[in-house]
Write a sequence for this structure.
């Protein structure tokens, strides 16, 4: 199956794709020099499944073995780990290349759909700074990888439906056996997209929008052919939502919004994303988490504005065409999983993030490019050079902004400092900067950030997670200063806010053990291990506690659990048990000798 079977634009398309690749790489040279940042430890550097063949098997067979069940994503990381280890350059380069591939596939898709200004849309998508968070953040490989499969699936299925076919008189799904291959290729690519990131489940709905835009109707045959894709997308979406609640942790008071409040979040998020596309200034890794209150009438203006725009485009569709409405419907549908109607872990920090609109932004960008191309065709006499110059200026400005934005992802320290400059009320940034300073042996400087995090509290809504993390981090810093009693108080405050905070329980147990209160410490560690059964650190501390209490059976049980969770830690535990048993035997012999004497 040859992808480009449309000779009339083969050679221009190849040159345009090479240009897209070159401009994308140039725009992201700053990001290529970046290191690891937030979440990259769970995804790459500390991910034990990437080290062995057994880990690769677990990636595919155990949903809880990796942070999220995206097996194709973690397989790509597994391959890289064995090619260039933990050198971040290789991971960054592949991210940028995949982003360039998405832009090239977008260009081909828009040519297939005969969208004017396809080259401009692809260039804007490639260098728009809202996409820097996706391309420069290693953990967001899931966006660019799933985006490639998403585009390939869309191209194959639209070819199957006859779009881009030379004979315009034929419509509907193709039935000849060679052409049926387009359908099965589209299904295969769609499954690959789902296994890379579940947000691509909205592709079937996006295809219905495209078919309606091009033909003014959707046939029963087209609906039936898309039904399996809808079913697969829904199943994977529900499975991911379940994992978000049970494994990732997207459950609790931080997500306790009513339907009306979720509606307000969705309306405000739509307006936010459109504004960031139009005016991509002050892009931030962690935006302010809005206070949603149904009693504040102004908050209803956002969903009303979004509804008004869609209604106006519907009413004007006969005069201006279905294209503008289709572009905005694509935008809304693609964003739907991230609009607040489903609980996802990042909502703990903010209801919006740049990477949420990676695929969705294609709609407004394409609308802008098509509008610019229409203006060029209408006013081309004497003004064509002016429009071309304006287009080059826009691309150049966006590319420069992308290059500057890429510097933000140089490393964790740079990321959180820049975040704090752009969002001074980011509790997340204060907590992470404080944690970095604690690890660097600067507990007093760390404490200053934790104090600032708590000062934000009276003016802005802070999630229970952020409050508990601040108390927890203060406990870590105070313990490093040797102020054990104060540290225990901070861990107690963290547990008051979030009783299931397993790390606070584990650290509190360690401090209790230092004070000789072993039985209380064991209770803390046991609770932490019960809350998070795969918490190897808590099981290790339990082993130490049971050993000190003389319960060898319980200690060996914990050792077996650790051996399954962390073989390296289990080896350390085994050595410790052997030393303890040797010490106990020596003491027993001495006691025996004393009795003999």
């Amino acid at each position: 199956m040859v992808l480009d079977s449309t000779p009339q634009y083969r050679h221009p398309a190849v040159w345009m794709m090479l240009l897209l690749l070159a401009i994308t790489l140039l725009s992201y040279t700053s990001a290529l020099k970046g290191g690891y940042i937030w979440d990259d430890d769970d995804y790459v550097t500390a991910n034990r499944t990437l080290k062995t063949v057994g880990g690769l098997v677990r990636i595919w067979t155990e949903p809880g073995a990796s942070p999220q069940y995206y097996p194709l994503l973690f397989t790509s990381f597994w391959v890289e780990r064995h090619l260039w280890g933990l050198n971040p350059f290789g991971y960054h380069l592949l991210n940028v290349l995949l982003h360039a591939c998405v832009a090239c596939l977008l260009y081909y898709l828009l040519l297939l759909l005969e969208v004017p200004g396809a080259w401009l849309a692809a260039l804007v998508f490639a260098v728009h700074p809202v996409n820097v968070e996706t391309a420069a953040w290693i953990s967001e490989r899931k966006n660019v990888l799933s985006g490639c499969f998403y585009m390939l699936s869309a191209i194959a299925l639209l070819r199957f439906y006859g779009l881009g076919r030379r004979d315009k008189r034929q419509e509907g799904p193709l039935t000849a056996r060679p052409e049926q291959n387009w359908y099965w290729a589209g299904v295969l690519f769609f499954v690959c997209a789902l296994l890379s990131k579940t947000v691509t489940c909205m592709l079937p709905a996006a295809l219905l929008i495209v078919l309606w835009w091009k033909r003014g109707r959707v046939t029963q045959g087209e609906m039936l052919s898309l039904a399996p894709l809808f079913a697969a997308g829904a199943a994977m979406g529900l499975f991911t939502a379940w994992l978000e609640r049970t494994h990732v942790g997207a459950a609790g008071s931080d997500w306790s919004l009513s339907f009306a409040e979720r509606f307000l979040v969705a309306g405000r998020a739509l307006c936010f994303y459109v504004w960031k596309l139009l005016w991509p200034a002050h892009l931030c890794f962690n935006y302010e988490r809005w206070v949603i209150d149904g009693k504040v009438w102004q908050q209803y203006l956002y969903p009303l504005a979004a509804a008004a725009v869609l209604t106006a485009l519907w009413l004007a569709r006969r005069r201006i065409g279905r294209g503008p409405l289709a572009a905005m419907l694509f935008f809304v549908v693609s964003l739907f999983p991230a609009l607040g109607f489903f609980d996802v872990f990042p909502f703990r920090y903010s209801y919006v993030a740049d990477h949420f609109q990676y695929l969705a932004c294609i709609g407004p960008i394409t609308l802008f490019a098509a509008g610019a191309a229409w203006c060029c065709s209408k006013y081309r006499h004497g003004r064509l050079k002016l429009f071309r110059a304006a287009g080059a200026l826009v691309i150049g400005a966006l590319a420069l902004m992308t290059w500057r934005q890429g510097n933000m992802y140089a490393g964790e320290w740079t990321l959180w400092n820049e975040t704090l400059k752009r969002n001074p009320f980011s509790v997340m940034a204060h907590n992470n900067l404080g944690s970095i300073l604690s690890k660097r042996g600067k507990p007093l400087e760390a404490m200053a950030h934790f104090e600032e995090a708590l000062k934000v509290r009276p003016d802005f809504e802070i999630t229970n997670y952020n409050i508990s993390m601040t108390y927890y981090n203060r406990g870590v810093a105070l313990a490093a200063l040797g102020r054990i009693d104060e540290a225990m108080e901070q861990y107690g405050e963290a547990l008051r806010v979030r009783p299931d905070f397993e790390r606070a329980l584990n650290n509190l147990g360690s401090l209790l053990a230092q004070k000789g209160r072993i039985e209380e410490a064991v209770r803390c560690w046991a609770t932490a291990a019960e809350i998070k059964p795969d918490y190897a650190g808590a099981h290790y501390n339990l082993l130490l506690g049971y050993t000190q209490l003389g319960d060898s059976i319980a200690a060996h049980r914990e050792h077996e659990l650790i051996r399954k969770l962390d073989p390296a830690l289990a080896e350390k535990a085994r050595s410790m048990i052997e030393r303890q048993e040797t010490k106990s035997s020596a003491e027993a012999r001495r006691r025996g000798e004393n009795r003999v004497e």
Observations:
- The first helix runs from residue 10 to 27.
- The chain is about 70% helix and 0% strand.
- Residues 7-409 form one domain.
